[in-house]
Amino acid sequence: MSRVKRIAKELEECRQDAQSGVSLRLNNETDLTHLTGYFKGPPGTPYEKGTFQVDINIPNEYPFKPPQMKFLTKIYHPNISSVTGAICLDILKDAWTPILTLKSSLISLQSLLQSPEPSDPQDAEVAKHYISNKVGFDETAAYWTKLYASDGEKDGQAALSDSALYGIDDEIVTQFENMGFPRDKTILVLRRMGIKSFNNVTNKGETENKILEELLKECQ
Amino acid sequence: MKVVVKNWHAIAQWKWDTGNNDADDGDVEGDVCGICRVPYEGCCPSCKVPGDDCPLIWGECSHVFHMHCLLKWIGTAASKQQCPMDRRPWVTAERKVDATTNSAPTP
């Protein structure tokens, strides 16, 4: 089988190359078709200091068909599903060519973290957040990196704050909490309505009323 | 002193003339087929014996592959009939015969 030889070669080359910053590991020593890739988040991005794991499945037709990749590490990025880790990247689909390798694909993923394409989203909610409020997006993405992609040291600072997880301005949640609504229900409703903050809302009063309505329904 | 040669072994080495023989271009991977990653002088994964039965193929774009590897790629719909290296439409180049041999093929 042609793919086995090539995969073995790629693994060996990647092992010898400490420069590239990406690494590959077999999930099972006897199976060359299921691997896990690792790389660091690019500096100067909200993914900085994170280590990201990618699940790699190699099809029978490799290298004539692209490897199937998805993120195992949860990540907040317009071109990666925040739920399943599915990736939207042309070279892993119709722009694949057999001269690309597992290593070059992982490097492409790394540069996808550097330059998101919100106009061709995999996760529409995240892309909307990116386009409407870049600062808020960066905060959430950095928060997810700290929470899910940091190596081991999960100190108290990264304690799970549910509103930050979804990029929701904590002020809104507190506002409704103070009215007596449970925190989890408030976050649920805000997520469902796609509201993250009141910053870009033209008619704040009306939006507040709508949230109230939804909350009352939710809490019946 | 008289030297008598009792027997001798001739050893020959062959290499495909890929047209870019600059050995010192620093590219370690320069001499492998980009599709299967096996050296040009080896054979593609579907063949057992290297040589004339598993030849190379040249594109007008100057890129070289094992013929079997390239044809397999071009045969897939995903290839869109493009060179794997530069994604230009694949056009097989007429093989240029070295200038020292005067039997250059007429295109």
From TrEMBL, chain A:
<dbReference type="GO" id="GO:0061631">
    <property type="term" value="F:ubiquitin conjugating enzyme activity"/>
</dbReference>
<keyword id="KW-0833">Ubl conjugation pathway</keyword>
<feature type="domain" description="UBC core">
    <location>
        <begin position="2"/>
        <end position="150"/>
    </location>
</feature>
<feature type="active site" description="Glycyl thioester intermediate">
    <location>
        <position position="88"/>
    </location>
</feature>
<dbReference type="Pfam" id="PF09288">
    <property type="entry name" value="UBA_3"/>
</dbReference>
<keyword id="KW-0067">ATP-binding</keyword>
<dbReference type="InterPro" id="IPR023313">
    <property type="entry name" value="UBQ-conjugating_AS"/>
</dbReference>
<protein>
    <recommendedName>
        <fullName>Ubiquitin-conjugating enzyme E2 1</fullName>
        <ecNumber>2.3.2.23</ecNumber>
    </recommendedName>
</protein>
<keyword id="KW-0547">Nucleotide-binding</keyword>
<dbReference type="GO" id="GO:0005524">
    <property type="term" value="F:ATP binding"/>
</dbReference>
<dbReference type="InterPro" id="IPR000608">
    <property type="entry name" value="UBC"/>
</dbReference>
<dbReference type="InterPro" id="IPR015368">
    <property type="entry name" value="UBA_C_fun"/>
</dbReference>
<dbReference type="InterPro" id="IPR009060">
    <property type="entry name" value="UBA-like_sf"/>
</dbReference>
<keyword id="KW-0808">Transferase</keyword>
<dbReference type="InterPro" id="IPR016135">
    <property type="entry name" value="UBQ-conjugating_enzyme/RWD"/>
</dbReference>
<dbReference type="InterPro" id="IPR050113">
    <property type="entry name" value="Ub_conjugating_enzyme"/>
</dbReference>
<dbReference type="Pfam" id="PF00179">
    <property type="entry name" value="UQ_con"/>
</dbReference>
<comment type="similarity">
    <text>Belongs to the ubiquitin-conjugating enzyme family.</text>
</comment>
From TrEMBL, chain B:
<dbReference type="GO" id="GO:0097602">
    <property type="term" value="F:cullin family protein binding"/>
</dbReference>
<dbReference type="Pfam" id="PF12861">
    <property type="entry name" value="zf-ANAPC11"/>
</dbReference>
<protein>
    <recommendedName>
        <fullName>Anaphase-promoting complex subunit 11</fullName>
    </recommendedName>
</protein>
<dbReference type="GO" id="GO:0008270">
    <property type="term" value="F:zinc ion binding"/>
</dbReference>
<dbReference type="GO" id="GO:0061630">
    <property type="term" value="F:ubiquitin protein ligase activity"/>
</dbReference>
<keyword id="KW-0132">Cell division</keyword>
<keyword id="KW-0833">Ubl conjugation pathway</keyword>
<keyword id="KW-0131">Cell cycle</keyword>
<dbReference type="InterPro" id="IPR051031">
    <property type="entry name" value="RING-box_E3_Ubiquitin_Ligase"/>
</dbReference>
<dbReference type="InterPro" id="IPR013083">
    <property type="entry name" value="Znf_RING/FYVE/PHD"/>
</dbReference>
<keyword id="KW-0479">Metal-binding</keyword>
<dbReference type="GO" id="GO:0005680">
    <property type="term" value="C:anaphase-promoting complex"/>
</dbReference>
<keyword id="KW-0498">Mitosis</keyword>
<keyword id="KW-0863">Zinc-finger</keyword>
<feature type="domain" description="RING-type">
    <location>
        <begin position="44"/>
        <end position="87"/>
    </location>
</feature>
<dbReference type="InterPro" id="IPR024991">
    <property type="entry name" value="RING-H2_APC11"/>
</dbReference>
<dbReference type="InterPro" id="IPR001841">
    <property type="entry name" value="Znf_RING"/>
</dbReference>
<dbReference type="GO" id="GO:0051301">
    <property type="term" value="P:cell division"/>
</dbReference>
<dbReference type="GO" id="GO:0031145">
    <property type="term" value="P:anaphase-promoting complex-dependent catabolic process"/>
</dbReference>
<keyword id="KW-0862">Zinc</keyword>
